Structures are given as structure tokens and as C-alpha cells.
Amino acid sequence: MSAELIMQVQGLRRDYVQPSDFIDFIGRKLRGQGKPPPVQAVMGVDLDIRHGEVLAVVGESGCGKTTLGRMLTGIIPPTAGRVLYKGRDIAGLTGAARREYDLAVQMIFQDPYSSLNPRMRVGDIIGEAPVVHGLVSRAERDEYVCSLLRKVGLDPGYRERYPHQFSGGQRQRVGVARALALKPSIIVCDEAVAALDVSIQAQVLNLFMDLRRDFDLTYVFISHNLGVVSHISDRVAIMYLGRLVELADTEEIFARANHPYTQALLKELPVLSAGKRRFDPISGELPSPANPPSGCAFHPRCPLAMAKCREERPVLQEVAPQHWSACHLNDVSGAAGAAGPGTPVADRHLHNAPQTETA
Amino acid sequence: MAKQSDMNGNNDLLLDVQGLKTWFYTRDGVVKAVDGVSLQLKRGEILGLVGESGSGKSVTGFSIMGLVGERGKVHAERMMFDGYDLTKVSAEQMRSLRGSRLAMIFQDPMMTLNPTLRIDTQMMEAVHAHEKVSRRAARERSLEVLRMVGIPAPEARLKAYPHHLSGGMRQRIAIAIALLNAPKLIIADEPTTALDVTIQGQILYEVQKLCREMGTALIWITHDLALVSGLADRMAVMYAGHIVESTSTAELIERPMHPYTHGLMSSIPSLGTRGQPLFQIPGSTPSLLHLPPGCAFRTRCYRADAQCEHAPSLLPVGDDHLVSCWHSGEKS
Q1: Is B109 inside any structural domain?
Q2: pTM of the entire structure?
Q3: Which residues of A touch B280 (CB under 8 A)?
């Protein structure tokens, strides 16, 4: 099993300290306060990424999914915990081994407008890194760029153009070609299709799947859109306020979501419906990570919260084979005699069938 | 105000737009952002106006609101709203209609709220712009609509500045401001696109409840067909400045006739499409600057043939179902 793990994340944490200027420093001194407490964006995540899979990381904005993705790619270092690439801690990698990791893990960003340098030609954007890293020689560069452009479905004649001459979907393809140029084995897609129109989104999603087959890629697909995730991913990790709350195969999550938060997310998934739908959302908003609630972070919004949820933080436990969930309901379900945790909610909402409104 | 009696006796029609054309005269040429759009809306009806970016759906909304800038010329054969002829009203009259009988909610609540003014100032200003009431009454009204859109502790929120509030809360405030003068029609331009799914669900819940309780008509402009299908009574699909298909929601979802609507619906990723390639519409939305003659969709359409070089017109194909296509029909 462990042989096919391409990347492992162990107890990963990332804190952000609010920058404090001189006045603030003096003010805090006078009031007898210490340093401002750090904001924990990611509060301890354990995750195994298998070779060749598409792992989706899903959550609302502010849940730490982007920070997690950036730590995977090594853009920002973790505050605590380890990222292992092919069994080796990336913090300890140096020289050739570090470079192998740097090249093997690439990222595609959300905004195809701000992630491409507007002053560089597309040929340079794609071709610069492979030449610098010695993957291709300067003489072969042009041909290499052309072949990549063809692979992502762009005309090779476009390599002399600048990013502003492309539409959003085309730019995203340039971003994909840039990531592919370094022959990566893992691509972290951070909301890579969120900014695209439906018809263009379908094209880019199909491209991702074709490339996965052709290049034997592993994807970490960060998204808030469960519709996209259900289509593309093999496994889904649900994040809430810096922690994983549920992790399972896609079919399992969509058929038997365990955590009340996952159930709430699934319920909100827009589906084509001929009848009117009764919207019945969970209340409240994601709490601030600067001041997280006690116990289970989801308890202020949870319709099934108990006294225990306010005091004790639930840990991830395997509720079914290969299905982990962090919820106290899993402990009491046996006593309550219910078929499983959150069953009442699950019955009502799991298939998020549009409920015809009774006017 | 020149309120005309409706000659056709269509008294239940709140909005009747025929042949709306909004053209922008730019240095590079004429951009026909909206090119002959016709819309009809009954009182209390919810219309979903669906299209991709650049289809002209937002400009249609702006044209009805009279918010098109200097560069744009709005022309309509007919644009009647609640007895007012919007093609003839003066700027002064339009301004008094906007915010009282017609209201708009925009995509980005960061941009629509003034960051330097407290919520109560902005809300009471909107009340006072249309009615001479005391400050106390204006405040009471503000509190009332804040409660209606489900804002917890509305008294405290009135004292807050926009940056104190989250995106979802700001959008609720924007909706509350739109509701202040009990408008007959609200035009919502992608109001939930910038929000998280759970917050989006909350906003949809409130909007659906408000429209039902107050009988407000709503035009919900969006690119998300699935989202609006659960909300709207009727749908209109736009492409390159034209409405290509328009019918009731149930009919559109069950029997889409236009190839573009087929494409939009089958390219939505879901659990059912897992493991297989998604249906994709080839190419991308055309530039409105140099639109070729004929059907604008023909370069991307799987049914296109020589006939499509002539522009089709929006014709009925069934009971209350309009399609603009030479080869309309259900997907085979």
C-alpha cells in the first residue's frame, strides 16, 4: 500500500502572525499584552496522496485549502508537521533531490489573468523553466513549446502572443502547459476552473482527464464546487476551519456522507431540476480562524450539535473501510440505536433531490 | 409622471420589453451587446436569465434599469414597466423609479456599498431619496428589511461599516437596500457568484421567501443553469446578444430545443458524468465586435449547415416555448 503513496502529509500546520507595527507594539506593551496570537490557517492535517489518483480538497473560503495546497508545492513552508514526497521529508531535501521534488510538483492557479506575466510571450512563459532546468536545450525549446501547446489544445502559432491576447479559457490552457512543461508527477489545481464559463470549464476538465491518462499524473484538486469534484475526483477530503472533517472515496461521500457539514454541502449542490427547489440551508458562516470555537469547530452551525461537541474536539476515525470522519455522533449512534450518524439528515438530503415546492 | 394606461389590456404584465438593442460605439467598431431581446414578466414572476460571459445578460439588466453609460445606445421598440414607458421617461423620472419600483442587486457587494458610510446612513439615504419621512421612520424601515433578509442582531449591524461584515452579510445588506421601498421588480446580476455554497443557499432561501411573500418579480441573471433552475418560474437563455430559447423552467429542463441549451446542460459536471468525458461545446464565445452574419452559434454548433448563414428568429415551437434555431429539436 505504502509503495503507491506519492506524497504524505503528517500533522501539517501553518500559522500566520498578524504583522505588528511599532505603534501597535507600544500599545500592546502599555496594555500589558503580549504578541498577537497567531492565526492558524491549517491546524494539523494528515493526508496520504496515492499515485495516479485525483484527490479533491473541498471547503468554503477561509478553510485553509489553498494554504494546504501551497504547502504541498513547497511555495510556503509549514509551521509544523511534515510533507513527504516519495517517502522523504521535503524539508530535508537538498541539491538534486530537492530539485526533483520542485519540478515534480506543479501548480495551476485560480485566476488565469494574474498568474501569467503580462509582459512575457506565451512561448517564453512555457519554455523558460524547462530550459533553465535543463530538460530541453535552447535549440529544442521552440519545438517543445509547440508540442505542449498542441497537447493543451492551442494553436502552436500562438506562442509569439502575449497573455492579454487570449480568452480566459485559453489562458488557463497556457497555465496548464506551463505546469506540464516540467514533466511533473503531481499537479495541484487551486480552483483551476472556478473562473471559467460552463462551456469552457467542460473543455478544461476534459483536458485534465486526457492529460492524466497521457502523462500518468496525480492531481490534488482544490475546489469549492462539489459538482466539479464529483465528476473529476477519486477521493474527496472535506476541510473545515483548518482541519479535515471527512475523507472518503467520491462515491462513498456522495452516497453516504457521514459528517453533518458534508451533508450540508451536498444539500447545497445546485442540480438541474424541473420543479422548484426548497432551499433549506445551514445557518451561520465559517468562524474566524483567529478565534475558533471550542470543541468541534462546526458545532455553532451544526443542527445535531450536542453538549459534548462544545467541549471536546472530535478526531478523524474510520467509520467504514477507507472512510474517515471527525464527528462525535459516530460515538453515540450505537447507544441511540440509529443506523448511523446523522441518519435523519442523510435521509432527507443525501441525494439532494429537488424537493417540489408546495405552494 | 406620465403613467400611460395599457392599451393591450395586459395588466398582469409587469415588464414588457420588445426588440431591445443596446449597442456600444467603440473606437474599434460597434459592439452589439444586446441585439433584439424581448422579455415579458408577470407580476411576482421569477425569470432566470442564463448565459455565459459576454452573452449580454448583464447589459440587458442595465438597459432596463437605465444604467448604460454614455458609450452605449439603448433602443427598444417597446419597453413598458408597470405602466411606464421606459423608452420615453425623462432621466429625472427614471431616477425616481430606480430604487423605488425597480431595484438592482449587483455581483460584488464590496463595490455596491460605500465603504466610508455606516450601514444605517446608506439605508436611510435610500429611504429619504424617495419619500419624505422622519429619520426615526426610516430607521424603523431599515430594521424591518434587515430582519426580512435574515440578518442577526440588526440593530448592531446598522452601526457597522461594510468592512466589518462578511461577503455574505454584505450581499444581504445590498438585498435589504433593494427591498427598502418595496419594489415591483428586482434585477439580480449574479448576486451569489462571489459567495460560498452554504451562503449562496442562505441567500437563495431568503430571496425565494421574499418574492413569495411580497409578490416581487425578479430577474435573476446568472451563468449557472442548475442554480437558477431551482428558483425560476421561467428561463431565457442568451447567446451573443440574442435570446436563443425561452420557456418555463420545467419545459426547458425537460425538453431543451436549442443546441446551445443542450450543450450548456450536458456540460455541467456531476456524479452522473463521472469517468466519462464531459460533453463540450467546441470553441469559445465569439467576439461581439466582428460577429459573422447568420446564427451567432453556428461555428460551435453540431447541427449547423448552410441554412444557418441566415439569422434565425425566435419562433414558437410548442406551447409557450420560443426557440431561435433552424434545426431546433430535442437532443437526439
Answers
A1: no
A2: 0.87
A3: 199, 202-203, 206
